[in-house]
Amino acid sequence: MKVLAINPGSTSTKIAVYENENEIFIKTLRHTSEELKGFEKITDEFSFRKEIILKELKEAGIELCEINAVVGRGGLVKPIPSGIYEVNEKMKA
Predict the structure, then answer these.
(1) CATH code of the domain containing 18
(2) E-assigned strand segments in 1-93
(3) Domains in the chain: how many in total?
(4) Which of 55, 56, 57, 59 is deepest in the core (most CB within 10 A)?
(5) Is this model's pTM higher than 0.90 or not?
(6) Dihedral-angle region of residue 84 (phi above 0 means left; psi in -120 to 50 means alpha; beta otherwise)
């Protein structure tokens, strides 16, 4: 099982891919203030960060079809108990 982990920060996006318990890829993608200045809100950065992540995975030879699960840190929801949640339309809005 391959899992993509995404940790978005204010000036970087950290990504890693794990196969079972083994880390097979890790990268910190740094974002300059120049790159980020065109975004009014953090949610506006979605496409920008997605493109960079997909590019890095491709360069590392990791195909999206190989990924079984994606996990992320943070988000724009209020604090909730830990666990597994299905992403719904309300969460994406």
Answers:
(1) 3.30.420.40
(2) 2-8, 12-19, 22-30, 69-72
(3) 1
(4) 57
(5) no
(6) beta
Name the pairing type of β-strands 2-8 and 69-72: parallel
The tokens for 37 are 């200045």
Distances (CA, A) of 38 to 57, 59, 67, 77: 25, 26, 31, 24
Higher model confidence: residue 25 or residue 9?
25
Q: What is the pLDDT of residues 24-70, one digit of tens each?
A: 999 999 999 999 999 998 889 989 999 999 999 999 999 999 999 99
Count of residues in the chain: 93
For 8, other C-beta atoms within 10 Å of its C-beta total 19
Domain that holds residue 56: 2-92
Distance CA 23, CA 3 (A): 9
